[in-house]
Inverse folding.
C-alpha cells in the first residue's frame, strides 16, 4: 500500500484581515485501505486562488465558508496510485476539488479524468485550461457580453485570470485591450508577451488618471479582478452601454474596515452601464463551450501562459499569501510531488 | 389669431449645486402667423422631472445638455388652438417635448395626438400613463428582470416614478413590495394607498438599518430613484442573483462634491448581483408593450395616483426645485392654462 499518509492543511481560525500561518494547522492523516469504489490519488498540483480568502470568512456567499478544523478544499490534480473503482484505473490523471493535501482518497465519483497531452503540464488544468481560463471566458462572454471591436480593460491583468482574460478578449475580436498590473515587470509582460495594446502599473499613480490616459476613447468592457479604485476609474471612462464583469476585489479581501465605493455611480444611469458580479460556480453549464474554444486556441499555439510554482504542500499557506500580495505572474500553484515543466 | 405671445423659461447659466432662479430667464416671444404644416398649441401641463437637473450640466450623458439661452425642453401636453396642418386639427390634444412654455408653435410632426378620455386628467399623460409610468415599467421588466414572487424594494417610492413602479411591481406579481420615502405622511400613503407591504422614512435613521428591518428575508429587485446610502443598504440585503435598476440618484444631483459610493460592492461578486443604470430614451421600443399593460390596468381601476400641481409657467423653476427637495407626492406638473381634476 503506497501513499498511506496524507499531509493536509486545515483552517483552524477565521482570519481577521490578512491570514497568518497561525490560522492554519498541518495534520498527517493515516489512510485506511480503500473501500469499494474509492480511489487514492497522489496530487501533483494544488491550486491557490483569490476566492479562497472569501471562504475563510463566515459571511453569506454563494460558496459555503470553509469549515473550521476541516481540510481546505479547492482545485487539485494528481495521478491515481491505487484504485478500487471500475471506472478510474491506476495511472489515470484526475482533477478534483478535495484541495489542500498531498494524497486524497475518496469515492471515484468525486474525480474527473483529464487527458494527459504531450508537453502540457498538468498544472495547466488548474489554470488556463481549467477554472481560471474558464473564469476569463465566462466573464467576457456571458457576464460582460463582449462584442468584436470592443475596447476591453482588465485589472490585475498579470494574474491567473487576467492573463487568460486578456488573451481571450483578443481572440474573440476585441478592438483594443488595456491592462493594469502591480509592477513595471508585469506591465512589460502584458504588452510584450500577452498582446495588450496598453498597460500601466497601478502603483505608479492614481488609477483614475492612468486609465484615462490609456483609454483616450473610453472603454466598452471592464473585467475587474481588483475592485476599489479600479472600478471608480472604469466608471469614469466607460462609453455609453458599457459592461463590467466583477470577478474579484482582491484589494479589499484582507482589509478589516470597509472602504468607500466609487464616487461616480451616477454615471451608471447617464451612460446606461451594467455591472455584474459573478463566481464561476453559477456558470458551469458553459464548460463544454469553453473547453471547445480553449482547446482549439491552445492546440493552435495561440495561448501564452506563466505559472508561479511553490514546492511542498506545507508551503500552501505561504503561496496563498504571496499570491494575494501579487508576488505571482500567471497562475499560482503548489507542487506536491512529481516534477513538471513550468513554462509556456 | 389667438395665443400669439408665448411665455418661455430659458436656462441662462449652468447651476453649480442647487439651481437658483438666477440660472433661468423668462422671455415673452411673439409668434409669427403659422407656416404651412405648423400647429399652435396652448399647453395645459408642463412636466418637471428629476432628469432635467442632469441636463443642466455640460457633462457627458445619453441626453444632450440643455443649450444656454434656449427654452428648456421636456414633456408637455396641450390643445391645438390653430392649425395649418392636414393631420392635426384644431381641438386635438397633443403630447410633445417642446417643454417649458405656455404656447408652442412648431411643425405638426413634433406632436402626437392622444385620446381624450372622460374623467382622465390630461396631466396623467405626463405621469402614470406616460414617460413616468413607462420608466417604472421598463425598470422593473427590461432592466431588473423582475419575476413573480420577487421581493422588490423601491427607493423614493412616493415620487412620480416610485408610485408607478410600486403598483406595477404588484400587478406583475411581486411577492413583497417595500418602499422608502422622505416623510411619515408619504410612508403612510405607501402602505395605505399604494399597497406596499412595508415602508420606512429614510430620514428617520440609517437606511442600512431601516431596510434590513423591513426586509428580513432579503430583496431580489431594487428600483433606485435616490442613490447614495440606499444603494449601499440594498447591497447589504440582496439575495443571491439580485438585480437593481438604477433610475435616479436625486440625492447627489445638487451636490458639488462627489460622495463616496457603497462600501460593500464586493457583495456583487459573492452574491452574483447585477446593477444596471438606464434612461428611458434607450428603451422607447417598449412603448407599445407598456401602453397595452397600463391602459388595461388603468381602465380596470387598478392604478392609483397622486399629482402635485403648481400653477403658472412662471413658477416652473420653483416646481422643479420643490420636486428635487421632495415636496411632491406623485408626479409634479406645472399647470399653464385650463383647470383640470387632480386626484385619482
Amino acid at each position: 500500500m503506497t501513499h498511506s499518509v496524507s499531509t493536509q492543511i486545515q483552517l483552524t481560525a477565521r482570519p481577521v484581515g490578512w491570514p497568518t500561518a497561525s490560522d492554519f494547522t498541518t495534520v498527517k492523516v493515516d489512510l485506511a485501505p480503500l473501500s469499494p469504489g474509492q480511489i487514492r490519488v497522489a496530487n501533483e498540483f494544488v491550486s491557490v486562488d483569490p476566492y479562497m480568502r472569501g471562504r475563510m470568512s463566515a459571511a453569506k456567499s454563494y460558496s459555503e465558508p470553509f469549515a473550521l478544523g476541516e481540510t481546505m478544499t479547492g482545485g487539485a490534480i494528481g495521478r491515481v496510485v491505487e484504485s478500487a473503482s471500475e471506472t478510474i484505473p491506476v495511472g489515470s490523471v484526475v482533477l478534483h476539488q478535495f484541495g489542500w493535501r498531498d494524497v486524497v482518497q475518496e469515492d471515484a465519483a468525486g474525480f474527473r479524468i483529464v487527458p494527459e497531452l504531450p508537453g502540457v503540464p498538468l498544472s495547466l488544468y488548474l489554470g488556463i485550461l481549467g477554472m481560471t481560463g474558464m473564469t476569463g471566458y465566462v466573464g467576457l462572454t456571458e457576464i460582460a457580453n463582449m462584442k468584436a471591436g470592443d475596447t476591453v480593460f482588465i485589472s490585475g491583468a498579470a494574474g491567473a485570470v487576467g492573463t487568460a482574460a486578456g488573451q481571450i478578449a483578443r481572440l474573440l475580436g476585441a478592438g483594443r485591450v488595456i491592462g493594469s498590473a502591480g509592477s513595471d515587470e508585469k506591465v512589460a509582460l502584458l504588452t510584450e508577451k500577452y498582446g495588450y495594446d496598453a498597460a500601466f502599473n497601478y502603483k505608479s499613480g492614481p488609477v483614475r488618471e492612468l486609465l484615462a490616459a490609456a483609454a483616450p476613447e473610453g472603454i466598452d468592457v471592464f473585467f475587474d479582478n481588483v475592485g476599489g479604485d479600479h472600478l471608480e476609474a472604469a466608471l469614469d471612462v466607460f462609453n455609453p452601454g458599457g459592461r463590467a464583469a466583477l470577478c474579484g476585489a482582491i484589494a479589499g479581501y484582507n482589509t478589516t474596515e470597509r472602504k468607500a465605493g466609487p464616487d461616480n455611480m451616477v454615471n451608471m444611469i447617464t451612460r446606461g452601464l451594467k455591472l455584474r458580479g459573478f463566481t464561476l460556480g453559477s456558470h458551469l453549464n458553459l464548460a463544454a463551450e469553453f473547453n471547445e474554444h480553449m482547446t482549439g486556441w491552445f492546440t493552435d499555439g495561440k495561448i501564452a501562459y506563466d505559472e508561479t510554482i511553490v514546492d511542498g504542500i506545507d508551503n500552501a499557506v505561504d503561496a496563498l499569501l504571496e499570491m494575494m500580495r501579487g508576488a505571482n505572474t500567471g497562475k499560482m500553484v503548489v507542487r506536491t510531488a512529481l516534477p513538471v515543466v513550468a513554462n509556456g
